[in-house]
Amino acid sequence: MRLGTSTGLGARLENLLIEFARSAPDTHLELVNADVQERMKRVQSGELDAAVVRGAHDELGLELLPLWSDRLVAAIPARHSLAVEREIDVAWPAELPLRVVGHSNNRALHDLIIGCCRQAGFDPVFGPEFTTDQDTLAAIGYGAPNWTVYYAAQSAKLSFPTVVWRPLRNPEPVMPSFLAVRPRPPGKELRALIEACHAVGD
Description:
Layout: E1 2-5, H1 11-23, E2 30-33, H2 36-45, E3 50-54, E4 63-77, E5 88-89, H3 107-119, H4 133-142, E6 148-151, H5 152-155, E7 163-169, E8 174-181, H6 188-201
Parallel strand pairs: 1-2, 1-3, 5-7
Antiparallel strand pairs: 3-8, 4-6, 4-7, 4-8
Helix pairs in contact: 1-6
């Protein structure tokens, strides 16, 4: 079985592998990492059996099975005054440049965060685009004050002494995830994968 995976699944991916191994002990699950458009194209072509995707997509020829929703948290400098708060309003860091992935690279995440900012009453000032975890967190922790967002499950796997993670509210950004499959009756292995995904989501 070939599964396209998404960045930032955190412990969900480990738990999914455990559940799948229990359900289909004689089947190997090969993980393939690619951007979301490439993942969906590979599912359409049959190169992948399924792919985890975040956000709604309107590509024809695929069925999107609802999985789970992931909360996003803010990564802010540990030295910033907001770091003393347990959770922060989306509007509070409005004066800080926002580092976010480009629209062309991850439309669902970009639109979710920009939409939350506008719902909170402001258009964000953009800093440099998000690159790698290491470079982005180093820039937040040691450079001019700025901020970004991470999936909560992903942030739990990251440690950077000069950056703190804070839940967001008003509004709370939440991203739905789906399993993209071809619209046909699933075979035994795919059913086991779907069940494993739902077990992780539960």
